[in-house]
Amino acid sequence: MTKTIQRVNYHTHCDRCRHARGSAEEYVEEAVRAGVSKLGFSDHMPFYDDRFGLRMPYQELDEYLGEITALREAYRDSLTITRGFEGEYVREDRAYYEKLLSREDCDYLLLGQHFYEKENGELINVYQLPDTRDYEIYAANIVEAMRTGYFRYAAHPDLIFLNDLPWDAHCERACDIIVEGAAKYGFALEYNANGFRRGKKQFAEGERYQYPLDRFWEKVKEAGLSVYVGSDCHDPEQVYDGIVEMACGKLEELGIAVRTDWV
Prior knowledge:
Layout: E1 8-12, H1 24-33, E2 38-44, H2 61-74, E3 80-87, H3 94-101, E4 108-111, E5 115-117, E6 123-125, H4 135-148, E7 153-154, H5 169-185, E8 188-192, H6 194-197, E9 200-203, E10 206-209, H7 214-223, E11 227-230, H8 242-254
């Protein structure tokens, strides 16, 4: 039997990212209906040069934060709303993260490493890898981001395993780098419910979800790390749906406590 836990979600998108459905207020209304006590907006971080795509244009940044701030005030008697972004860590943009975090209307940043940076500065899309040789570089990027203090926790840290590549020593070491880094820096990780929504796929080692990856989370359990469940919702109906409840149940089966307090 799954334990009853406080309903919170700090990983929420809205239609500004251009690949989600529903306005920010629709997500708030669903959160109230679902009995969520804390809702964190973390739409994809726009960069000043509009790199990466599939996110709001940089020119909408102020409008987005203003909208969430207005909702925070309007619904303050119903739930707590926090304001932030999910974004990639890029070394040259440290001043940008500091600028965002210095604003009164930005509460936090989540680390969502959809792209990772090589030593020469080249940015690589994790969805387009031909082999596992760079997995350790991806993992090292995440640990480097942990050290900066800019990010509250790492969203889907096992995202890279969505690639259909045979498990090898690079995969194993990438897991260890992330887990060891999180333990060293006291950094929380996110068990991402959206991976379950994608359904199971056929991989070299058999059928499984793209993520969360059991092998990775078994290492997280052994290390006793702090773990959040993130809905990563892209539709108001997903704010706290049966998939989020399933993710909480999966962690309970693994023996990992779900953290719900605000970091």
